[in-house]
Specification:
2 copies of one chain form a homodimer. Chain A is an alpha/beta fold. Chain A folds into 2 domains: 356 residues, TIM Barrel; 67 residues, no CATH class. Helices cover 50% and strands 9% of the residues of chain A. Chain A is built from 20 helices and 10 strands. In chain A, the strands form 2 sheets. An 8-stranded parallel β-barrel of chain A has the order 3-4-5-6-7-8-9-10, surrounded by 6 helices. Chain A has a two-stranded antiparallel ribbon with strand order 1-2. Chains A and B meet through helix 9, helix 14, helix 15, helix 16 and helix 17 of A and helix 9, helix 14, helix 15, helix 16 and helix 17 of B.
Chain lengths: 433, 433
Amino acid sequence: MSFLTITQMQKAAAGIITPEIIQVASSEFRQPEEIRQHVASGTIVIPRNIHHTNLVPIGIGRLLRTKVNANIGNSALSSCPEQELVKLKNALKYGADTVMDLSTGKNIPLIRKQIIEHSPAPIGTVPIYEALARAGKAEDLNEELILQVIREQAEQGVDYMTVHSGILLEHLPFARKRLLKIVSRGGSILARWMKQKNKENPFYTCFDDILKICMEHDVTLSLGDGMRPGCLADASDQAQFAELGVLAKLVSRCRAAGVQSMVEGPGHIPFHEIAMNMRREQELCGDAPFYILGPVVIDCAPGYDHITSSIGATMGAYHGASMLCYVTPKEHLGLPNAKDVRDGVIAYKIAAHAADIALGRPHARDRDDAISQARAEFDWEKQFELALDPDTAREFRREALKESGKELDHEKKAQYCTMCGLDFCAVRISKEI
Amino acid sequence: MSFLTITQMQKAAAGIITPEIIQVASSEFRQPEEIRQHVASGTIVIPRNIHHTNLVPIGIGRLLRTKVNANIGNSALSSCPEQELVKLKNALKYGADTVMDLSTGKNIPLIRKQIIEHSPAPIGTVPIYEALARAGKAEDLNEELILQVIREQAEQGVDYMTVHSGILLEHLPFARKRLLKIVSRGGSILARWMKQKNKENPFYTCFDDILKICMEHDVTLSLGDGMRPGCLADASDQAQFAELGVLAKLVSRCRAAGVQSMVEGPGHIPFHEIAMNMRREQELCGDAPFYILGPVVIDCAPGYDHITSSIGATMGAYHGASMLCYVTPKEHLGLPNAKDVRDGVIAYKIAAHAADIALGRPHARDRDDAISQARAEFDWEKQFELALDPDTAREFRREALKESGKELDHEKKAQYCTMCGLDFCAVRISKEI
């Protein structure tokens, strides 16, 4: 093991403006020196494993455009390597900024290798999944195996890894009071392990060794929330915030080691508690980028959790979350397929974009003003081109024209749509005034 | 014309606790006297035309559960009476609290008659659509025709009507500065009429006559926003707020006449301006129920405007909007079909419910806690029953099981889903701890 790698964070701290910083500054309309300062202090991360050579760097932090992550990956019950590449393609096509491979089934290393090779976006993983798959039984999980898996993933080029190092033995009683106990997969596996062995969380006890591997390959850590609430009834409780306190200390240890870090957040939060949750993370964790999952804001709409959670995600991003982990329509029901990946990414691009506009980020509204201009001019083709999902927009217009018996060549020319028809088209009438 | 009808508002002002007030109090977990006071002051409306005999009364106001309206109706290009009944059925099935018939095509009176007969929910209309359809040419619109249409619709049993009485001749120059001018159908028709004739808005000049008809049949007025912005670039501008000032004065005139009234609002508003818009209406308009359309919070997602706008609708309801007019995925592209109606209603039930939970309305979270309990118990059937859209939830689980080669009878029994599979199911693992 060599320690010669100088990490992105260490370079920034040494005053070096790296090519990655220049790239991020340029795509975010910021000054490189400003980005450097934030990377040095840890309030912006630029995940880039030194082995992920085809990566186009992006920055994640409260100062920057809100990022969207799409989870893909198989389960023991579903999917194969080819299907996962289709999901990757879909996620990138519709604008995911990062992609996590959460495979827990067969062929995990092969799937990951292909995903990294095909992705210019940073790739994240949750190493405990592969560790458990390799251990076979949860009892056989141990520090050595965990470190081995993390090392192999780092060598393969994984840009950021979720480690559930914040859930401790002393937190377990807090979960007992909950309606849905522990809903994080990593969290529940570790909780059972700790309970069975009456030993502290191995991801916590070997955290310094994890940091060494991250330093060597310049891996960003995403500090997982194993205690995230799984329903509104469990939101913002003692279990959640006890773990957040530990995550805050781990952020400091990452920063001291020159390892970039993010903090993961819930999950399920009622709308009125979202701002408080964002503020609390910023204050406790030294403004480390907050990477939130949703949150969903109601529990009773299975089949529509891309919507319930894009509402929470917008509010979260508006109050300072830096990256939004998408939720698909299949959440709470099954493993997402390629269509679900698309629907999830689009819902989250909407949330991120809505927050970016509300926060006045540079040029955030350009695309919206351009599409409004195209609407004023009845330039349908331009509207489609500027849409987050041109295919669906085009298809819906075609469907509506077809249902009203109009020929398809109306599609491009008509100075109205079937919503109002010619005589009631407000945009057309307005032009006459 | 007889003036013997005593309106809901007049009865409430006289201290009478009507059957409608009792019904609303019961369904909202409130005291009848509290509801009566709000109806008397105009901060709650209970739309009920005396001729709509099969109506189940609901209340609309900031104190009460957030309501959702679904627009249906044909255009000159699309749909027939039967299709509109299918849309009505879909809207009610998924929980729309009120339905507006916005037909602008053929058979308007027949479609409306059928809709009123089949709907226990209050029915709204926009009389200028029928008036224009009957006039043929916009120039031929006049006060007499407008009043005649309003009278006929009132006699037929329409519970509330949108009248664009707030857009005045003096406001027209404000719209000229806009990217998308006037996007309200009623607003654009009236603007052109005023411009061509250089005369004041007939819905404004004959407002007292409109009030007389509303008093006679106890019709609630929904004061339309003909100047609502049609894109983010036009939001919260002079045109919008100049009209809002007039609407505020019309609210006072309605209240003085004992006619219930709501105020309609935008439309397109960036996320950070929504709270200000809600506050402004409350302050200016004496807290008259605010009935908002969306608002969409980004312009570049045609095909997904049920999502872009459910985000804005949640924020709007959280800050005091009383009723949310849905937006369907077809918005900006064409006339919604029955599936679009379902998708729009569900997205808005989500928004309304999220706000009701956030505002701590009585029993708002009961359904969510029950579904979370069912999740903890792997009671799939109960989860489906409690879902806003049981069919879709059931179908998605079935689809996921099928994709993973599982038999369908797994559906009801399995203590996991295909998302994580058996070994990685956090809910199952949690139970073992």
